[in-house]
Amino acid sequence: MTTPQRTPTPQEQARLDNIKKAWQQRRSITQNLSKVKHKIAVYSGKGGVGKTTVAVNLATYLASRGDKVGLFDTDIDCPNVTKVLGLAEPPAHNNGKLTPSERFGVKCISMGFFQKSEEEAIIWRGPMIHNAINQFLQMTEWGDLTHLIVDLPPGTSDAPLTVMQTLPLDGFVMVTTPQILATIDAKRSINMVRKLNIKILGIVENYVGDIFGEGAGKSLAEELDVPFLGSFELRSDYRKSGNKPTVLTSATVRDEYEKIAQNLDASLQQL
């Protein structure tokens, strides 16, 4: 005699529906990214350390050497990637899919394309940010890429956690500066990434030079036993580059990114 199947309670059914929805979203995202070889997050423990500048210039350098590169700006409430890349043309939208905009060989998706103006404040709570990131991941057709560079929001709040739990990342590039507070926050963020069992591909130290000093990034890398990818000097070249990534206008900056990219390649080969 078979036991009659019990009908789930409304609460149980709601939980089952949420699990099914999350699984379907995950499958859709995985399929969308199936042709992306490396998915790399550029991350920082605090704002103001030059994370977005590093993400855009790294993506542009990789594209300039012949790699197929995408750049995903997941900083929903403060999107700046389009400004640094000098990109204004919004992505194409067809049949519920987004085709990324492109400049300098870098395919780009950012909330910045959908603001009425760059001064507009995006005042969203966590669930809305989570949904926006999920929609971008499911709707964007990246195509064949060797690298997808993901510019994460800083800190250890809900927004970066959403990306870490939703996007199957290969690893993180942590951006810090010689200042002690930036180093402390970088250490917190690295510990968060490690709790999620995601690899730290390396640390880069930004704004080094006579004003802020240097060496904190390398010391942090040695302390935490992660690769030190290199450093970027604080220089006026960034201010003079206009609406182009500085890696395209300064030979000195390009040399710095070449070294970083070579060390990043070495970290990726160990995956």
Q: How do you describe this structure in short?
A:
The chain is of the alpha/beta class. It contains 9 helices and 10 strands.
Structural write-up:
The chain is an alpha/beta fold and 271 residues long. The protein has one domain (37-269): Rossmann fold (3-Layer(aba) Sandwich), CATH 3.40.50. The chain contains nine helices and ten strands. It has helices at residues 10-32, 51-64, 81-85, 126-139, 158-166, 180-195, 216-224, 237-240, 251-269; strands at 36-44, 69-73, 92-94, 97-99, 101-103, 106-110, 145-151, 171-176, 200-208, 228-233. Helix 4 (126-139) runs parallel beside helix 5. The longest helix is centred in the first third of the chain and has 23 residues, at 10-32.
> Which consecutive residue ranges, at least 5 long each, have pLDDT under 50?
none
Q: Give me the count of strands.
A: 10
**Which geometry do the CA atoms define?**
globular
Q: What is the domain tally?
A: 1
Task: Report the order of strands and helices.
Answer: HEHEHEEEEHEHEHEHEHH
CATH C-level name: Alpha Beta
Q: Rg from C-alpha positions?
A: 20 Å
Query: What level of helicity do the residues show?
Result: 40-55%
N-end to C-end Cα span: 53 Å
**Quaternary form:** single chain
How many distinct helices?
9
Strand content: 15-25%
Superfamily at the CATH H level? P-loop containing nucleotide triphosphate hydrolases
